[in-house]
Automatic annotation (TrEMBL):
InterPro entries: Inosine/uridine_hydrolase_dom (IPR001910), Ribo_hydro-like (IPR036452). GO terms for molecular function: hydrolase activity, hydrolyzing N-glycosyl compounds. This is Inosine-uridine preferring nucleoside hydrolase. Keywords: Hydrolase. It comes from the Bacteria. Gene3D superfamilies: Ribonucleoside hydrolase-like. Residues 43-235 form the Inosine/uridine-preferring nucleoside hydrolase domain.
């Protein structure tokens, strides 16, 4: 079986989406020419799944990609504190048939309120959970840095893709971690030896509207940790940035929320979206674009900038300095590419779970 490589090329994906509805059912059939002979990408998903709902859509998308054998979701770590965050992630993982994916929480992250995490408290008429989950609150989850160290220590060298779509607190703490019972290597060396690349949703590398210095939330809400990430990062590991402009140019269509989830009257992704946005809003897909690039880097959904170095200034502004040997590149996206991205993200987010699938493809 062929390994999946950073920067590979393959034919353009052809997406056919046929949706047939009955009262409570939605049958979704997709056809792509995506290369099925590639090994699944081992993924760590680091998310601030408390505020915006794009984190929920991105997690659903990862599960669909795992159903298709394109990724192996090794762990989920959470970069903001909320007593229901770990339980909610566990409920989503369980809904998609992967209840045993380890979940880690940060001890240094700031707290955040949420409009949708309380979905885990919903009960059925018989008193059982509407959304099954084993973790009841964050005290049942693992420490994020410990989980990151364990996951990397167990992985093959230069194999794991870290998808970071929130604050950089967990990654910064990982880079600062010391040798321990898990691994004799410090965190910096673990990252250097085990990661294939990092796909990061953060920053703004060009004007946003008339504002030439947009301060993107994942940076400005914890500037120190993002500075630690860019300053202490091993230069041999590529970082691919999906900045604010990409997700806002590829919005998730409200008609998908209305129509594509009818196969389950209590779909947690749909319910979370409605709690956050209401039914009349197309939400930017910031976090989804980092997932899509990480798992399908060579499928032509995005372009890439030249190589360079990202600098995080003290006010939270992200500057990009061209450098031929820099570790950083950022995504670009034309209008035709944006149309493809919107459609493929819709397909991947709304696909019914295959609860008999496993994350890892075997020969």
């Amino acid at each position: 079986m062929m390994p999946r490589r950073f920067g590979r090329t393959c034919p353009l994906a052809v997406l056919v989406l046929i949706v047939a509805f009955t009262r409570n059912e939605c049958v979704v059939a997709q056809s792509t020419d995506h290369d099925a002979d590639l090994d699944p990408v081992p993924v760590i998903f680091d998310t601030d799944i408390t505020g915006d709902v794009d984190d929920v859509l991105a997690l659903a998308m990862l599960h669909t990609l795992a159903d298709r054998g394109e990724c192996d979701l090794l762990a989920v770590t959470i970069s903001k504190r909320h007593p229901k965050a770990a339980a909610f992630v566990d409920a989503i993982n369980t809904f998609y048939g992967r209840p045993d994916i380890p979940i880690g929480i940060s001890t240094t992250a700031p707290p955040r309120e949420s409009r949708y995490l309380s979905l885990v408290d919903q009960r059925q008429p018989d008193g059982t959970d509407q959304y099954s989950h084993d973790l009841r609150d964050d005290s049942d989850a693992r420490d994020a840095v410990e989980l990151l160290r364990q996951t990397l220590a167990d992985a093959d060298d230069h194999s794991v893709c870290l998808i970071q779509v929130g604050l950089a607190v967990n990654t910064a703490d990982l880079l600062d971690s010391k040798p321990d019972r898990i691994s004799p290597m410090p965190g910096h060396d673990l990252v250097q030896q085990k990661l294939l690349l990092a796909s990061i949703m953060a920053g703004a590398f060009g004007p946003v509207g008339s504002n030439p210095r947009h301060l993107e939330a994942n940076v400005k809400n914890h500037i120190e940790s993002m500075q630690q990430l860019v300053n202490r990062w091993p230069q041999s590991v590529p970082r691919i940035w999906s900045d604010f402009r990409i997700g806002i140019a590829a919005k998730y269509p409200r008609r998908s929320i209305k129509n594509d989830f009818r196969y389950d009257p209590h779909h947690p992704v749909r319910e979370a979206y409605l709690r956050y946005n209401g039914p009349d809003h197309d939400r930017p897909t910031w976090d989804l674009t980092s997932v899509l690039y990480a798992v399908r880097p060579g499928d032509g959904y995005f372009g890439l900038s030249d190589r360079g170095v990202v600098e995080v200034q003290d006010d939270g502004f992200t500057a990009f300095r061209p450098s031929a040997d820099g570790p950083d590149r950022y995504l670009t996206m034309s209008k035709p590419q944006a149309h493809r991205v919107i459609e493929v993200q819709r397909s991947l987010v709304s696909q019914p779970p295959n609860r008999n699938a496993t994350s890892r493809v075997t020969d």
